[in-house]
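Could you please consider the sequence and fold following this short note?
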Amino acid sequence: MHPQNPFLKDYNFDILTKSYPPLGDFVLVNDFGTTTIKFADPKAVKALNTALLKAHYGVDWAIPEGYLCPPIPGRLDYLLHIKDLVGRDKLNLLDIGCGANLIYPILATCHFNWRCVGSEVHLESLMNAQEIICSNVSLSTVKLRHQRIKQNILKDVVWDDDKFDVVVCNPPFYKSRLDAQDKNKRKVKNLALKESESLNFGGRSNELWYKGGELAFIRKMVEESLLCKNQVDWFTTLVSQKESVKGVKRAINKAQPSMVKEVSMDLGNKQTRFLA
C-alpha cells in the first residue's frame, strides 16, 4: 500500500463504531484475538465503508442494496499514486463510471481538495451519486454528467471547453454475467466460503461486466482518448487482470502517446496495477 495511505494501520473499531453505531452489529473478535468484521458479508462491508467515510472525512454516504461497494483503502491508493504521477497538488479529475458510490470524487475532493467531474451511464446510479453530493456540503464542487450513449466512454462527457489533469477509471472487468458468476464461484471455493458469502462487494451489470471484458472496454477508451487528447494530460485506468496488460499496452501504443507508465499497487494479498 502507498506509504501515505492513512489506512495502512489496522482499523480502530472503537472510533469507527462511534462515528457510525450500526457498524457495531458486525464487529467481532476472531480466533487470533483481533477485532474485525466478516469481510465476506456485504452488509458488514457496506457498514465499514459508511463508518470510514464518516470518521475520516465527515461524509454521509449510502448506496442502494446490490450496488458496487468499493474497498476504500484501495481506491485511495490509486489516487495517491495518481498524485505522484502528475506531480501537482491541485488537480482537475474526471472519473469515468463514478457509479452510485461516487468513491473517487469523494476521496479526491475530501482527501486532496481536487476538483472532480464524474460520468455515469446508469441513470439510477447517477441519481444516487447526486444524492450523496446534496447530502454533503464538502462535496458541493463535484459535478456529474450522464453518459447517454451506452457505447461511448469519453465521447460526449468531455466537453469542448474542458481541461482535465487526469482521467481515472475502474472498468468493468467481466465479459458477461456468466463470466462474473464463474469467477466468483472460484473465489468462493478458493477462500472456502459459503455460497451465500459470495460477491461481498456487490455490483450491477454496468458496474461489473462489458462485452469483451476490461480489455475491450479499455481499448474503446483508448480509441476515444484521441478525440480529446488536447484536453487531458493523463488518461489512466485500473487493469484488474494481469493477462489484460499486454493487450492494453498494445492498444495504447497504437494511439502514439508521449509517455506510458504501468504503476503496480500491492493491496494486502492482492496485487493490481493501473496504466497511464
